[in-house]
Amino acid sequence: MEAVPRMPMIWLDLKEAGEFAFNAAVKKSAVSVPRDFEGCSTLRKYLGQLHFLQSRIPMGSGQEAAVPVTWTEIFSGKAVTHEDIKYEQACVLYNLGALHSMLGAMDKRVSEECAAGAFTYLRDHFPHSYSVDMSHQILSLNINLMLGQAQECLLEKSMLDNRKSFLVARISAQVVDYYKEACRALENSETASLLGKIQKDWKKLVQMKIYYFAAVAHLHMGKQAEEQQKFGERVIYFQSALDKLNEAIKLAKGQPETVQEALRFTMDVIGGKYNSAKKDNDFIYHEAVPALDTLQSVKGAPLVKALPVNPTDPAVTGPDIFAKLVPMAAHEASSLYSEEKAKLLRDVMAKIEAKNEVLDQFMDSMQLDPETVDNLDMYNHIPPVLMEKCAALSVRPDTVRNLVQSMQVLSGVFTDVEASLKEIRDLLEEDEAQERKLQELLGRVPPAPGSPPGLAEVSKECSKYLELHEKASFTNTELHRAMNLHLGNLRLLGGPLEQVRAALPTPTLSEDDKQVLQNLKRILAKVQEMRDQRMSLEQQLREMIQKDDITTSLVTTDRSEMKKLFEEQLKKYDQLKVYLEQNLAAQENVLKALTDANVKYAAVRKALAEVEHKWNTTVQTLVASYEAYEDLMKKSQEGKDFYTDLEGKAAKLLERARAACQASEAHRQQLLERELKKQPPPRPTAPKPPLQKKALDEVGGPEAAELGSL
Fold first, then answer.
1. How far apart are CA 584 and CA 161, in angstroms?
2. Which of 415, 423, 546, 657 is most buried by a 10 A CB count?
3. Are 123 and 178 in the same domain?
4. How many CA atoms lie within 13 A of 170 on its CB side?
5. What is the C-alpha to C-alpha distance for residues 177 and 182, in angstroms, rounded to an integer?
6. Which parts form a coiled-coil structure per UniProt (predicted)?
7. 130 and 167 housed in the same domain
8. 33 touches 103 (CB < 8 A)
9. If you average pLDDT over residues 88-112, what whole number do you get?
10. Which long-range contacts (CB under 8 A, 24 or more apart) does 203-207 make?
11. What are phi and psi of 493, to 5 degrees?
12. Within 13 Å and on the Cβ side, how many CA atoms surround 672?
């Protein structure tokens, strides 16, 4: 796998700057940066100096020195203006993350981690209402995309370095986890509406990567099982890897050639591993192959992180050009309070993320989708793909009849050819038999002029035609078998829709089964409600922290009273924290109820899965029969053309065979008469028998009888 082509990565466009009443030279160097690491350095310096400026001059929203700041919004291209210097900082920070994402797509993992760090700082320290491209949902999506791509780069390096299989599997599993988080964000209706048309492209690529890297993880788990000589486990891991890779291939339609090359390369590796492992286990080791869900799941190893952003780091920003402008005591106190708020947010988020991780793992293991948990609606109608085939046949009512007639004509020509070739073969065999019989009587047929020509050529051509007929006969048989296989399905598709619907399997559920389904769906709705409430409370907390500015109070507060003021101000978050604690505590009971409901649902789920499999198989079979029609007609016509040509040749050959056999018979009669004339004359004392009788007597015994019959 170390030579597998690299998958393409997602990178973000930079925002374009508009109006900002600032020094033109500074603005030009800050918003028109080169697309390289020097550009990243310039943006960091500019960000730091903006922070120093904002801490001294009241340029924030609603403050005395605020000026209009304009930037374009990425997805719509619209100009967005705010009179807030923090908006300028936020846009510069966004561009820093976007530029790192661009460099990361072309270069090293560290750029992806820098991008994730920039977006994380932007999400946690700035308002989300500035513009759509800097909303909480979009920034969280960007963070998970960047971390996933950074982990993906680390995975590539680990495979190149031939790290241990279990470690590679865990790294790959973590890639899957990051992309699943990104995919959840992409599937969110609000996020999708914000992203616009780019959402579909990103979602397709991320979904394909989820299955692809899950396949890579199970490939390396299979390698680990191989190293531990657990040959049954090896087979199931390689089989799972193959299944997931096939899903990735289905989702990769329309992706660039680099993706297709990576998938083909990986299919060669995994396919070869699976075939070899299965063959070895079947013929050598004979170990039981366990079910995949009985084996320990692969837990991801997050070995990348969002690199922190410190806008006041002098090593990055350079010297503070506004150092002599104003004292910073009040702003230092405000920064301390901001750190207290950040600490509160980190503590709360650590609890939320821990619970979310448990919830996500639990729901992934359950494999329960509230939208399709019973999928009963699908059985109430004929699927569109089948309706399309029925509609196509409804305007071609002679489809079945044409196919049957075509095959009948083919059978007739086939039979005629077979009869002609059989007659030729019989004539040749009869001629050979007569020739042998004459040789037995006369001992050896002496060479004679006028020997009948043509039999050898006829025999050679007959053998050639028989060989062609025999090969074509197999094809003809297969063609008839295929026709018989699809004929009933074509009749069904061309009939009333009620018959088609009746041919599709449908589940039969008892009242108890329906009650089990309703209970499960009710609890799944509770799980979603708990998720939504948790996200809402988190958003409220973030917005409350963003708006919490006590700078005015700090100016009038004695330095010795700062700690007490902080404690009093932080109490405003207590109520939200209580609500969050209640939400997190309820998770255990909800998951327990879901576990119990899922146990009762197991039998119903199995029955529904079996019916769904039969339903899908039936649909696929009917569609395949429709698609096979044109091929059958084409091959039938080719068969008719072939046998019509062969029939003409066989008829001509039959005439030649008859003529050659007649000439051969005449030649044998000449030989016989010649031999009879060679017999000695009769003795004088004996009665004179007929000439032919005398010759026969002198030959004597059975030979005479045979000559007489000839």
1. 42
2. 657
3. no
4. 12
5. 9
6. 414-444, 520-547
7. no
8. no
9. 84
10. 204/251, 204/254, 204/255, 205/8, 205/10, 205/255, 206/145, 206/148, 206/179, 206/182, 207/183, 207/251
11. -65, -30
12. 22
Got the DSSP string for 23-71?
Answer: -HHHHHHHHS--SSHHHHHHHHHHHHHHHHHHTTS--STTSTT---EEE
CA 129 to chain centre: 38
Out of 276, 305, 334, a domain closes at 305
**Same domain, yes or no: 211 and 269:** yes
Domain holding 29, by residue range, is 1-134
Q: Do residues 292 and 243 lie in contact, with contact meaning Cβ atoms separated by under 8 Å?
A: no
In this predicted model, what pLDDT tens digit does every residue of 270-314 receive, in sequence order? 999 999 999 999 999 899 999 998 998 899 999 999 898 888 788
Residue 698: the pLDDT is 42
**Closest listed residue to residue 668, CA positions, set 476, 500, 441:** 441
Answering whether pTM is above 0.70, one says: no
- Secondary-structure breakdown of the chain: helix, strand, coil percentages, each rounded to the nearest 5: 75, 0, 25
168 and 301, same structural domain? yes
**pLDDT at residue 693 tops 50:** no
**In the predicted structure, residue 170 carries a pLDDT above the cut 70:** yes
DSSP 2: T
Does a structural domain hold residue 444?
no
The number of domains in the chain is: 2
Q: Which residues pair with 82 in a beta bridge?
A: 69
CA distance linking residue 584 with residue 227, whole number of Å:
42
Question: Rounded to whole angstroms, how far apart are CA atoms 358 and 41?
Answer: 39
Q: What is the CATH number of the domain that holds 17?
A: 1.25.40.280
Q: In what order do the strands lie in the sheet with 79-82?
A: 17-20, 69-72, 79-82
Residue 524 lies in a domain: no
> For 24-77, how does the pLDDT look when each residue is reduced to its tens digit (9 = 90+)?
545 556 667 888 888 899 999 999 888 878 767 778 888 888 889 999 998 888
Q: How far is CA 386 from the centre of its chain?
A: 23
- Does the pLDDT of residue 450 top 60, yes or no? no
Q: DSSP alpha helices (H): ranges in 107-197?
A: 109-125, 136-160, 165-187, 189-195
User: What are the helix (H) ranges across 494-510?
Assistant: 497-503
Burial (CB count <10 Å: 0-12, 13-18, 19+), residue 139: buried
C-beta separation of 373 from 524 below 8 A: yes
